[in-house]
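Continuing from yesterday's entry. The apo prediction looked reasonable, so today I'm repeating it with flavin-adenine dinucleotide included to see how the binding region is handled. Same sequence as before; SMILES copied from the compound registry.
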Amino acid sequence: MQTVSEHDVIVVGAGPGGATAATALAQQGRDVLLIDRHDFPRDKICGDAISQGCIRIMNELGMASRIEAAVGRGEFHSLHGMRLSGPNGDVLQAAFKRGVNGEESFVAPRIYFDALLQQHALESGAAFLQAEVKEPLLDGNGRVTGVLARENGEVKAYRSSVVIGADGVTSTIMRALRPPEGQHVDKHRAVALRAYIKGIELYPHEVEFFLYDDILPGYAWVFPTGENEANIGLGMRLDRFRDLKKNLKKMLEEFLAMPAIRERTTKGVDLRDVAIWQLSFGSQKKLQHAYDGALLVGDAAGFINPLTGGGIENALISGKLAAETIDQALRTGDISREGLKIYEQQCDEEMWDGMRKSFLYQRILLNYPGFVDFLIRYLGQHGGVAKTFLSKL
Ligand SMILES: Cc1cc2nc3c(=O)[nH]c(=O)nc-3n(C[C@H](O)[C@H](O)[C@H](O)COP(=O)(O)OP(=O)(O)OC[C@H]3O[C@@H](n4cnc5c(N)ncnc54)[C@H](O)[C@@H]3O)c2cc1C
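Holo prediction written out below.
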């Protein structure tokens, strides 16, 4: 097949992980092709909660003035704290402390958030192609040498020294490279529903998490996006969801009918963009993220926090680490798995401790649901569960 173009790096997926990697590599002067099946702006099913850690990395990439402008346009909604409600109605309220450089947390609908990151990648020097990647291209030794992508109905070959798979939880690159037995199992996966709601009385700058018997170790959320408007949703671990034969749309109706919510929606609500998507947690051990000529980042690798469902910050962290690893590997000329696998070690150092603890708390919530109210009432914001929600959203 004829090769259309050749690059230092092809990044598949222009979500937060891919856009961060593309930006960092382009800023190092690398020739980067960023491919996404969608043009931007585009929606992504998410709770839209953006941690301070995300803002810190975006500032490092030179995005401070873009963020400020997005706040001014009302696209980023500032957060001052959180409320965690337990099954008996006990509420833990905690304030978010600003980061060392004054970073805030936000709720930013992904239609705005992702477009900002993708635009920054392009203005940093990455080229963008709207195309659907079908599979990685492999040489005779199994090394990744580019991708096959469908553009305007035609499948074409694009070549690069390294490919980054940043194509989300259903990653084509991940499925082609990881053997089936090395992929996520159901107890490290979740399924979640997201909608936007109008007409609900809100705590205007606080994210709300609701932990109740029917949903544990998952939760429902109400995250304000503006005046009387919020991102609302709920998620459950996949094995439990399958065992209990649950239906997420029905669970949303039940959540809206719960007294704590019903009394705040007495004038009726308007729900839009109800949609369901999957999550892969970073708590599953020994998954491979580095291959000959390729790395996986963000949801493609499976870096979502198993307690909070937050994955954007880890997508940014892994995107940045992947860019640093690849830049170094291109300098030494070793783009084999051996040359790239330091990335796995660095991801572990940055994320594993948090994943391990979060999975432990998740198991406590699953096995001892009666303990949730105790945690909220007596341990308050100094308990590990609360701290994890506070820092990892
Ligand atoms: C319901 C729900 C709620 C969530 N809430 C939060 C939250 O509030 N805060 C938080 O931090 N995290 C949250 N998460 C997790 C978060 O959405 C992800 O961790 C994050 O989007 C990961 O970013 P990414 O760049 O790795 O992947 P994605 O954001 O999924 O981006 C992948 C990109 O790849 C593109 N792509 C996919 N396949 C192809 C292909 N074959 N060819 C070309 N392009 C392709 C897609 O179009 C997409 O643009 C939530 C997840 C869900 C499902």
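Comparison notes:
- Residues 99 and 230 are 24 Å apart (CA to CA).
- The chain has two domains: 3-78+104-184+283-359, 186-281+361-392.
Will overlay with the apo model tomorrow.
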